[in-house]
Amino acid sequence: MKKFLGMALVATLILASCAAPQAKKLVVAQDTTFPPMEFLDDSKATIGFDVDLMNALAQEAKLDIEFKSVSWDGIFAGVQNGTYDIIASSVTITEERKQTMDFSDPYVNAGQILVVLTENDKDTKLSDFAGRNVGAQVNTTGSMEVDKIKEITLKAYDDIALSFDDLLNKRVEAVVIDTPVAAMYIKNPKFAGKIKLVGDPMTDEFYGLVVKKGNKELLDKLNAGLKVLTENGKLEELKAKWLK
What is the secondary structure of 149-160 as a DSSP string? Predict the structure, then answer.
C-alpha cells in the first residue's frame, strides 16, 4: 500500500510539472501625475484615459495586467530592462524613441500647447518667452520644444503638477504641455480662472503604448486590441469621457 501511494504521489507530481504554465501578469507602468490620461483620485486610486484603455485592451486581448505607478524619470529604462512590460503613460511616438523601444499603433493625437497666467494678454507663442523661464516635464516632447529656442531657460519637472504651481507663483512664466493635459488643468478648481491656453498646438504628435524592443508577440496583441476598440467605438467613447 505504501509503495502504491508513493508511486501515485510521484505520478501526481509529474503531471503537475507538465501542466500548462500560468500566464504571466504584465506590469503596466504609468506616471500618475498626468491628468486626464493617468492620475490619482481623492482616494489615491489610479484613474484616467490610459487606465480605462488598458483595462479594455486587457479584456479584449485576454491579458492579465497590473498597474504600477512610477516616476517618469527612468520609466523607459524600466521597460528596456524588463521591470515593466508595457508603458501606458501618454508617451509620444518619436523617431528617436523608436530606436530603443517599440510602439503600438497611435491612439491619441496630442500636440504641445502653451499655458500662461490668465492675466497675460500679450504673449501668444513660445518664442515670445525668450529670456524668461518656461516649464515642461523632463524628457518629454514639451521640453524638447522649449529647448529648440536657446534664449528660453527651461525649468524641467519630474512631476508636471509642480510646473503649474510654479506658474501660479510666477517662478516660470509659461508651461508647455500636451493639449489634453493642459485642458484638464485649466478646469481644475485650483487653477480655474488663473491659467489659460494660448495660440494653436505647436506640434502634431501621437501617443502610443510602449513595449520592449523586439517584443513582437505582445505588440501584436496590443495592436489587435486597439483595432477592435477603434472599430467598435470604444476608443471614441473613452475620448468623449476623458478628453472633451
Answer: STTSEEEEESSH
- Domain 23-109+206-242 matches domain 112-198 at the CATH topology level: yes
CATH code given to domain 112-198: 3.40.190.10
Q: What class has domain 23-109+206-242?
A: alpha beta
Q: What is the pLDDT along the chain (244 residues), one digit of tens a residue?
A: 433 444 454 444 444 445 444 568 999 999 998 889 999 999 999 999 999 999 999 999 999 999 999 999 999 999 999 999 999 999 999 999 999 999 999 999 889 999 999 999 999 999 999 999 999 999 898 999 999 999 999 999 999 999 999 999 999 999 999 988 898 898 899 999 999 999 888 998 899 999 999 999 999 999 999 999 999 999 999 998 998 7
The residues spanned by each domain of the chain are: 23-109+206-242, 112-198
- Partner residues linked to 27 by β-bridges: 66
Instruction: Tell me, rounded to whole angstroms, the distance of Cα 137 from its chain centroid.
Output: 12
Cα 134 to Cα 1, 38, 131, 229: the distances in Å are: 81, 23, 10, 37
